[in-house]
Amino acid sequence: MIQLIAIDLDGTLLHEDKSLSKGNIEALHKAHEAGYDIVICTGRPLAGVRPIFEEIGLPDGNYYMIINNGCTTLSTKNWEIIGKEELSLEDMHRLHVLTKDSDVQLTLFDMDHYLVV
Questions:
Q1: Cα separation of 68 and 114, whole Å?
Q2: How far apart are CA 76 and CA 72, in angstroms?
Q3: Maximum Cα–Cα distance across the chain
């Protein structure tokens, strides 16, 4: 049986000031020691997740993250992408047309950048 804890960052694991408590770090380590896989699931891009993962300090191993609002799954072993969903140029054009005359803002991001269009 797989035992897994999938945990969000903002508003869940992190405090309002985006800090990570010692208690939450200890709880994740205890869960890991008890055999649970820890998976961070967040809307953030990798640049906003990796420092938090490193601060948690789980033992060396292969962990997984679901980031970019579910668009990217990666392995922490080599920080490689193992699955992704991308918008096509046609999708992006359609979104631009739908939003160009409105107050709606589009946010786009890749592994290192976060842009508000």
A1: 10
A2: 13
A3: 53
Distance CA(24)–CA(102), nearest Å, equals 41
Which structure tokens are listed for 114? Answer: 């976060």
Which residues make beta-bridge pairs with 38?
5
**What value, to the nearest 5°, has the Cα angle with vertex 67 and ends 114 and 80?**
100
Q: Specify the pTM.
A: 0.82
Among all residues, which ones are annotated catalytic?
8
* CA distances (Å), origin 9, targets 6, 82, 93: 10, 21, 31
Fill in the DSSP letter of residue 28. Answer: H
Of 41, 108, 51, 52, the C-alpha closest to 74 is: 41
Question: 10 Å Cβ neighbour count for 40?
Answer: 23
- Tokens found for residue 95: 């979104």
Encode pLDDT of 25-69 as tens digits: 999 999 999 999 999 999 998 989 999 999 999 998 899 999 988
| 42 vs 55: CA distance, rounded Å | 16
For 35, phi then psi, to 5°, come to 100, 5
